[in-house]
């Protein structure tokens, strides 16, 4: 019996207690009285009946108010206290019961808080012991994760069902670049924990490679490696190596295959370069063959007929001269076409420009004892460079400046210029001549006792850059300017991935070795499902009146973890103006949205991002209404189940005053950052949802079907948009 039913029952009992004895007594007297006595009773009672009814009604109302107050203080107060107690036990250890209501309830709240304080002390001791026991395991995991993050190759680890359980930074960036140009390339990525590797690579080729590895495992574990070449979505060619992950069986010492490691390399660019070189060589060979035949014939005629006429001899000599000139031009053209190809074979890497400067400063100060400073340095600028030769070149120029011009200080400047970067070495002092700079440029480099067979010009050419000397007359100083290539996303698309500086990965979960490849099943436990938590920002609050989506933010939950690096965050051009009241909430203006992709592009990308997952949102009816109104226009239908944290809060805490996201987060002890942005609200909702899962389990709601059925019974489920 719920609290509302008990309250109504108490009201009925109160009414019976106030009117029942009087009515029964009156009926007994009436039944035993004679006719004359009954007439006398009527004559005596009727004048005072209205007063009695008013007094009875007044007493009933007073009693009702007393019962209602007692009910709120004791029944509802204790129910609210029970909800708060469950919060303390399961979701928010720091939560405390407010001592409200009558003195007895306040004393109970204080006693509960004291017990909670003692419980926290015991839990801290237990947590410390557990942390100490797990530290060695976590250390090994962190070492492996850090090692994977530093590898220059893209590495992906999968279980036997093809579900991704680990990947490094290079894999994330490389596959994100491959996704550009496809629907998944707008704000999302092809790779993610728990996702299927078959969405990236051909399943048939992986299955074949698995079969090869299993066959080779019977012979030798060391030789159990398979290699194959496949094509990604965008037509890029990938070279893949598969190595098995072996684990011991519980019932024997035999080791069995539980997953596999894929090392992926984008070979598109190298194959294109080799093909281009082959074409150039073929063209050179075919063109030279005809010229050599003509020269051979001309030389043969000159040799066989020494007495030929002068005019004919001059004609043959002209043929030889023309063919030699043609071969020379063809050779020059071939070498020019080879130049870029030869440069690309120089081992250039993506490196932060500030790191190059820092390395050069250390060497100059340690070896040459020359102080140096930086000015106007773009610390986020990445260069394509071979760091050792470039740093050595800078030190070489500094040594020459000290030797010839006795400079006292060197300054560095690093600025972007389109697809190039300007790295300047600045000094104050005497001017130098162009002839001197040309000599330095072509000399073999030497710094103290270290020498290099390369010249400064060799290093610059192999970087595909330039260097020059320039004087700032007004400032009475001069500088050498290195013009160097900038690392760009295009490098990632061809297999040369630019690291984003976040080398420590969060994206690994070894528990996924036991993850089974199943579709969304309503009877699966909530803890076993993958979720996409999302939020939308809109031009206004009336989807049926023409308001549009202007931002979609989403984050994935896999194996009970909120993956903050696997996100979808995309602005949308609504093709209409944003309402001022909306801008005051989310801060997005018309200028910020102009030029962004429209909903026709963004919605299919978001659909790919949340494929095979359960959708989660706060007040999901509002967000889903916007998505449903775009089904006819985009052809994208979101048919997966949807869980609403607003409704689930009503299920868990029906006696709480507020079910807004901020209030729920405060109850659960969650700090919210970035509110009223699509991604910020999605992350906050994800944190709230993860805290709700154990609370739902305590109520016996453990499957997706049970959660949906419980949510449908709440009052908030009746709200329509």
Structural features, described:
The chain has helices at residues 3-32, 35-91, 103-150, 169-179, 203-219, 268-304, 310-344, 353-368, 387-405, 434-442, 456-462, 489-493, 580-586, 590-593, 599-609, 620-628, 631-634, 645-652, 661-668, 678-698, 704-712; strands at 154-159, 164-167, 226-231, 237-248, 255-266, 349-352, 372-377, 382-385, 410-417, 420-428, 444-447, 450-455, 466-472, 477-485, 531-538, 549-558, 561-571, 614-617, 642-644. With 721 residues, the chain is of the alpha+beta class. The strands form five sheets. A five-stranded antiparallel beta sheet has the order 2-1-5-4-3. The relative contact order is 0.08. The model is unreliable at 183-188 and 489-507 (pLDDT under 50).
Short summary of the structure?
Residues 530-698 form the Exonuclease domain. The protein is an alpha+beta fold and 721 residues long.
In the predicted model, the low-confidence regions spanning at least 5 consecutive residues are: 183-188, 489-507
Q: Measure the end-to-end span.
A: 33 Å
Strand order of the biggest β-sheet: 2-1-5-4-3
Inertia-based shape: elongated
Mean residue pLDDT: 81
Question: How large is the radius of gyration?
Answer: 40 Å
Strand composition percent: 15-25%
- Let me know the number of strands: 19
Please report the number of helical segments.
Answer: 21
Tell me roughly what share of residues is in helical segments. 40-55%
Helix and strand layout, with pairings?
Blueprint: H1 3-32, H2 35-91, H3 103-150, E1 154-159, E2 164-167, H4 169-179, H5 203-219, E3 226-231, E4 237-248, E5 255-266, H6 268-304, H7 310-344, E6 349-352, H8 353-368, E7 372-377, E8 382-385, H9 387-405, E9 410-417, E10 420-428, H10 434-442, E11 444-447, E12 450-455, H11 456-462, E13 466-472, E14 477-485, H12 489-493, E15 531-538, E16 549-558, E17 561-571, H13 580-586, H14 590-593, H15 599-609, E18 614-617, H16 620-628, H17 631-634, E19 642-644, H18 645-652, H19 661-668, H20 678-698, H21 704-712
Parallel strand pairs: 7-9, 15-18, 18-19
Antiparallel strand pairs: 1-2, 1-5, 3-4, 4-5, 6-8, 9-10, 10-14, 11-12, 13-14, 15-16, 16-17
Helix pairs in contact: 1-2, 2-3, 2-20, 6-7, 8-9, 18-20, 18-21, 19-20
Protein name: DNA-directed DNA polymerase
EC number: 2.7.7.7
Coiled coil: 123-154
